[in-house]
Design brief:
Strand order of the largest sheet: 3-4-8-7
Largest sheet: 4 strands, antiparallel
CATH topology of the largest domain: Ferritin
Number of strands: 10
Order of helices and strands: HHHHEHHHEEEEEEEEHE
Radius of gyration: 20 Å
Shape: globular
CATH architecture of the largest domain: Up-down Bundle
CATH class of the largest domain: Mainly Alpha
Number of helices: 8
CATH superfamily of the largest domain: Ferritin, core subunit, four-helix bundle
Distance between the termini: 33 Å
Amino acid sequence: MRFALACLAGLVASAVAAPVEKRANTLPPVDSVTDESVLQLALYLEHLELALYTGGYENFTDAEYTAAGFPAGFRENVGVIASHEASHSATISAILEKAGYTPVPTCTYTFPYDSPTSFVDLANMITSVGIGAYLGGAELLTDDPILEVASASILTVEARHDAYLRTGVGASPFPTVFDTALTAVFAYNLAQMFIVECPQQLPLTILPKLTLESPTPPSNLQPPTPAGTLLKFTYDPSTFFVEVAAGTPLYIGLINMVTNITYTEVTSCGTGCATIPVPEGAAGAAFAVLTTFPTADALTEDQLSSFGTLAGPAEVILS
């Protein structure tokens, strides 16, 4: 433990010794990408995860975790994960403060779990978003070795957290050969479903909501959701940023691993309701967006999050 704390202290000290280049004393313009904006989003998500894991530790007893089928010591390790998230938050805050920026404060959160098992299911979903955000932001920090190392160090620990939690419910700790990167806008939107209110939001676009209605995967994610299974989504067309003419074909773009985004034309199941089959080869955590752009005009994830999304993203846990 002393060694771990010493390493963390060294990381904080190194980060503070080589601050982010000062650009302004305020948040960046809407959707702009800077070192500060990447770090503020990372901190925003770390605050969310800290609240989640603190609740998972405080709201259930060892006996309740054991009765739910979790191994001995599981609750204690949830507490350790919470302490890791606190350290991550402190590290990122220190980097921002040294650079002259004000770290984004914590929000008020709501988490829809009522048992140890539903807590772990939710933690898998939220941690997958955090992992995706770090992957998506990593390339934007490569001009600063200190920030790159700090980000990568946190990312690998987040992945270990997720593997441990998945093992606890009997799921595979490594369901895919690659994890899925997320843009800042998509990661930020995925966090919004757990936000009650924030003293300060980030200057990122809030997109219309897309909800996965079914299927609900089993807690142990076994067997994985097979290709061809119908995914049912709902959305509110009145919230779209652009008018979509009646009869315009709609598509779900499924972002998964490092492959090209899979675009599938939806089948309508009523106003604001659409289904698609799970594409062949999709696995792990995937993220769905509703769009009018077909496969022939396939957009990148950056393009989707900038101008191509009608609603979304919605997280789809497949395995």
